[in-house]
Design goal:
By secondary structure, the protein is mainly alpha-helical. About 70% of the residues lie in helices and about 0% in strands. Helix 1 packs antiparallel against helix 2, helix 1 (about 5-30) crosses helix 5 and helix 2 runs antiparallel to helix 3. It is elongated and about 60 Å long. It starts with a helix and ends in a 5-residue tail after the last helix. The longest helix has 25 residues, at about 5-30.
């Protein structure tokens, strides 16, 4: 098995997650461990799927069947991040308002989806990490 196909998206996940944690910590003015999860800047999901699609495109070619699959999954996940999960977050916000009115202790997570710029940032992270992974595997026999 070619480990680079696993290492490359993990690299994107670490980079995007680190950027998200730093941005959230700066915004909260404290270490933002409580904000780890769905939503936020940049989109980790977009970074991971874009990373593997870019890596496959560079390594296997745009005409390879596996790139077609990776690109299709990338589109589905990005559309889901912007559309469906954002709507789920809005529903959670409304339900939390209702729960506050009922003085309930339960609170739903409202930050589930992404704004367009958060997904765009994730795509950029994915492109860069995919390209860096491709360069790394080209320069060393460890990943081949």
């Amino acid at each position: 098995m070619k480990l680079i196909y696993l290492i490359s998206p993990i690299f994107a996940w670490i980079v995007a997650g680190s950027i998200k944690f730093i941005c959230n910590s700066i915004k909260a003015e404290t270490l933002a461990f409580a904000q780890i999860g769905y939503g936020g800047f940049p989109s980790t999901h977009a970074a991971i799927v874009t990373n593997i699609a870019v890596f496959i495109a560079l390594r296997e070619g745009l005409d390879s069947p596996i790139f077609g699959i990776a690109f299709t999954l990338m589109l589905i996940i990005i559309i889901d991040a912007i559309g469906l999960r954002r709507q789920i977050g809005k529903h959670a916000e409304i339900l939390n308002k209702l729960l506050r009115d009922l003085s309930s202790e339960t609170k739903l997570r409202e930050r589930m989806g992404h704004k367009s710029h958060e997904v765009l940032a994730g795509i950029i992270v994915g492109i860069l990490t995919g390209y860096l992974s491709y360069l790394a595997q080209s320069c060393t026999s460890f990943f081949k």
